[in-house]
Amino acid sequence: MVSDLVIKGDGNIGVNTTDTKTKLHVLNTDDSSGTGDAYISGRVKKPTECLRLQGQWYFTGSGALLRFTNKHGGGLNLNTGEYYTAGVAGFDDQNAWGGVLALYTSPNTSGGGDLTERMIINSAGHAEILGDRAFDGSTVLKLQNKASQYGRTQIHLIGRYENSNDAWSAGCARNAVMFKYQTDYYSGINHAWTIQSVPNGSNNELGFLSGSNDTPRVLFQGSTGRVAIGTNSPDCPLHVASSTSISLNSLFAEYSSSSGSPHIWIPDYGYLPIRDISIKQGKLFMFWFVDLEAGSIS
Question: What is the average per-residue pLDDT within 167-195?
Fold first, then answer.
């Protein structure tokens, strides 16, 4: 035993402590200022280093790995009688002095499988969750609230807004949820849909952008409650704009109990049969005729 290292009779090892609570107990009581390396913004102090794992740089991917295993008579990993469960690694990102944090798990494989990357946080702080690569594999992010009552489950997207610098963008939106797809794991990534939030002054707009098209197909204006289709500037509760005529049957499905003509639902009156409807030069023209108790609407 030396002053800073204690090996107890029960096999526990203490570093800078004699009151060991587990097999390896490391204590660091040094104070730390809330600035510089390892500082977490908004805090007064910062974490104190208790353990350092150091690898040797050779190229991208070089780093240090912390491996978790279990002993088991049927385990085949590393040595007979052991199998991998998970791991954490820090490694070189792009030969540019930056680092990546990787989380690994081992798949369900008889005797134990190799550690497989499941999540990485790169040097820019971008996080990726990598799902199962099996034929019918899935990638799942599950947020479950286990409060006994009054629980809340929320996802907060907090981005920047810079007035005239902000614009609708399917590929480079500032505050958005993007849906993309690949035909296989190594193929290019294609844009499907982008749901983007643009404050646009006080309008507080939400747009749905299709593919790589930077113009919203549908826009919701929060300040007025208006909905726009084919335009970014709705001037009525539902603004449908088109440079060409749109046929009636392309907008309204037939009402099954009617004689076959398209209908529209009107509160207090029910389904009213529409005689003709068209959209030209951004204006909506609608005509219908139906007998009511006191006459007809036209």
Answer: 90
* CA separation, residue 132 to residues 104, 189, 224 (Å): 12, 18, 44
Let me know: does 205 contact 224? Beta carbons within 8 Å: no
Q: What's at 185, amino acid-wise?
A: Y
Q: What is the pLDDT of residues 106-136, one digit of tens each?
A: 999 899 999 999 999 999 999 999 887 776 7
First and final C-alpha spacing in the chain: 100
Phi, psi (deg, nearest 5) at residue 248: -60, -45
HSE-CB at 39 with a 13 A cutoff on CA atoms is: 11
Beta-sheet pairing, 218-221 with 205-210: antiparallel
What one-letter code names the amino acid at 65? L
d(CA 274, CA 236) in angstroms, rounded, equals: 21
| CB-CB contact of 179 with 192 (8 Å) | yes
Structure tokens that stand for 284 in this block: 């909506």
Cα angle for residues 163, 166, 169 (degrees, 5° grid) = 165
β-partners of residue 101 are: 90, 121
Residue type, 241: A
- Going by C-alpha positions, the residue among 165, 210, 212, 164 that lies closest to residue 188 is 212
